[in-house]
Each structure stands twice: as structure tokens, then as C-alpha cells.
Predict the structure of Ribose-5-phosphate isomerase.
Amino acid sequence: QSKRLAAFQSVTAHLVPYPHYTRIGIGSGSTVVYVVEAISSLLPRDVLSTMTFYPTGAQSEELIEAAGLNLQYINKLAPGSLLDVCFDGADEVDPALNLIKGGGACLWQEKIVATSSKKFVCVADFRKISPALGTMWKKGIPIEVLPLAANRVLGELERMGSLSPKIRPGLPGKAGAIVTDNGMWIVDAPFKPLRVTGESDREKGEWQVDELADALIKIPGVAEIGLFYGRNGNEGQGGGAQKPVEAY
Ligand code: DER
């Protein structure tokens, strides 16, 4: 129940004290199920009726609808305006609050909504906290790719020192690769544990997290990467999102 506790803590800290918030992003995965439960149970209906919730994929959309919350899509947000806050999970969190995300194959819309929010709250229990990305999440960095380019991307990742990158297979009942909400494939790219600071040693395949993110996003055929990080607030470069406010 540590995921549920983390979810209630994060909603108590970052939404309950702000009943004037009107636009909230909702991520994807199993922890976020508890975030929606916390929102529904901790905020009075009259406050909830003034709030609109923006999903990050099919599962997130279903969560919002099933909770009877107001649903709207990020393409309806006027250019230049931002959501007040976004809650989402993570697969791994390093001490600088860099994240690996995409275990649920929803990373592209998650990053769009995360970077469209003034505040990004990562809800991650103790199991996700790590000294360096890649030390406990061994499946690799999830990368959303155009199916046509998947093999080209695999080759480029190997050249960059990824340790046996793979196209994510479908689940039982789905022959072939996983297909995301956006009709794309996911490539999982394991690397040696990522350095938070210092320089990359590309010859040894040892990367600093920001430099790897900047290199991955440039590979032709890559739509988005499951590395969430920032340098200064919203101006994350490469594929970066702003740094999450807090990890729970
Ligand atoms: O796919 C994703 O990015 C999810 O948010 C994932 O990172 C967290 O999933 P979990 O809450 O089920 O552990």
C-alpha cells in the first residue's frame, strides 16, 4: 500500500491546499489509480466540479471518466497556457529527480502533459528511488518510435552503447510489438547506470543523463524518450520535461 500512501500524500500536499486550481494533468500506470482515488476522496464535490482533468492516454482517460471527473484533452488547452499541476508515476527516480518513465508505454502523451504543467508531481514510492537511473530499472529507457524506423533506431542505440536494445513485444493476446495509444512502437534501451553529473564517456557507453537524453531525442524515427528531467524549470532541453516538484 506504499503506492496508495504516496498518492494520498502527494494530493494532500499539492492539490488539497489549492482549491482554486482548475486544470490538472493525470498520468498513467498503477500508482496514478490511487492519485485519482485520493483526488475523489479528499476534495469536496463542489471543488471538484470546478476542476478539469487532462489524460495522458487511454488508461488515464478511463480513470478520469470512471471517477466522474471533468475530462478535457490537452489539444484544447490554448497555446501558451499551462495546467496548474500534473500528477504522474515513474519507473525509477534518481537523487536529482530525473526519471525513467514509460513502463506503461504512455510516455509520449505523459511528457506532453507534464511539460504543459506549471508543476509536475512525481508520485513514486520507495521502490522507485535509485542512486542512478538504470541501477534498479533494468528493462531499459523506453523510447517511442515510428514502427518503420524501429530497426534503424536499434542500430543507432547499439552504436551509442545500449546493452541489447529491444522492440517491446506485445502482451499475451497481441502478436507482434506493443502498439501505443499513438500507433507507435516502444524500444527499451538498457544503458549502464546514468551519471547525474560529470561528463559522458561515450566510448565506454557511460552517459550523463542530460547528454544521453539530448542524444536520444535526435535519433531519426524517435518520437519521444522516457527520460524526464529538466535544467531550469520548464526549459528542459532535448526531450526534457521540467524537473518534478517532489517525489513521494
Ligand atoms: O509508464 C509510465 O510512465 C508510468 O507512469 C510508470 O512510470 C509508473 O507506473 P506504475 O505507477 O505502475 O509503477
In short: The longest helix spans residues 2-14. Residues 231-242 have pLDDT under 50 and may be disordered.
